[in-house]
Amino acid sequence: MDFQISEDSAPSEFISEEQRRQLVGRPPATGAWLVGDPLGDRKFTDAFSLELESGKTLHSARLAYESWGELNESKSNAVLVLHALTGDSHTVGNSSKAHPTSGWWNGLIGPGLAIDTDKYFVLTPNVLGGCQGSTGPSSLNPRGNEYGANFPQLTIRDQANAFNELARQLQIDKWYAIVGGSMAGMHALEMVIENPEVTNRLAILAAPPFSTADQIALNTVQLEAIRSDSNFAGGDYYNAKPGFGPHRGLALARRMALLNYRSPEELNERFGRSWQSQVSPISENGKYAVESYLDFHGNKFVRRFDANSYITLVSAMNSHDVARGRESLEKALGRISCPTLVLGIDSDRLFPLAGQELIAKHISGELYGGELQVIQSEFGHDGFLIEIEEVGLRLGGLLQA
Q1: 236 FRET partner, CA 20 to 30 A, in 196, 215, 280, 308?
Q2: Where does the chain bind substrate (predicted)?
Q3: What is the C-alpha radius of gyration for the chain, rounded to an integer number of angstroms?
Q4: Is 59 a known active-site residue?
Q5: CB 314 within 8 Å of CB 219
Q6: Looking at the domain 21-400, which fold is it?
Q7: Pair 196, 337: CB distance under 8 Å
Q8: 182 catalytic, yes or no?
Q9: Are strands 78-82 and 121-125 parallel, antiparallel or unpaired?
């Protein structure tokens, strides 16, 4: 595996000694993009204020975003592609000093591809609260210090409202399509339920209509892993020297998450009971190969993400419930009246098919293919990122319909 490919977008495989050596050296206190770092392909909105569900107002907020293709004169060909929890605006492209990983949907967006940039203007913003350019905990507050743990609590609806501000600034009155998988599917649902006229088409991939108790529980232990790291220092760690940030806690949270993202079948088939580098974990203090896989990707992750952002985004996911403050789940989903692709992965243990079945059952718009689209995949939840051909076939069909 290319070291710079996000682990979410590639099948699991054995970690080589060369790959392990690439992580030698102390990571910075945060893997966030910071002002003064190379811009790469990022663009930024003008600063805006956002009223939050908590009753607070976030002032001087900005979203970082990237785009591909050309916006037509009528601004009717804009496709909004939203990213999942640990993604960012770099949906397509190579890794560089400015972008720590290559595009998480390379092969799906581009000239002649499923989301054809010869036809569409495609845009991906980094979510509010994220750490790759958009305002978040690693950003500076009005006093000139990082927000840290004082960054305001966000909900999925708050973040969806920030995406609406992006559209307003770009003078895009209606999206040609909104596409979201996993956490991004939560955002996409909220955008369309709140304003059914915001888009002509909608794609919800491997996302639920609400976060269940089981999902909140899985999220909670990840957040506690971060907070229990003494180097987390209550969220005030940005001035820590390399190697003294909350790396152990964040890496542990990432290991936990990876187990939810992949299927038992994939891990069992890929690794079995193999040893890492042929060193016995029984008599020679070695590790099983699957342990090394989790260690490697946990240690890699801390070099591109921020612990406070992880807490902010996962907490927002816990807030997700399309029925909250609305009459019912059925009536909330019934507000979705545009042609919609609802897609699930048969081996997804993070957001199982039951959630997508609810969405497909209760939307009032035309359902792509006439039913929930189920992809059979060994890759679990991450199948919506890895199964490019199957996902692309259905996304392309929705866009052309």
Answers
A1: 215
A2: 254, 382
A3: 20
A4: no
A5: yes
A6: Rossmann fold (3.40.50)
A7: yes
A8: yes
A9: parallel
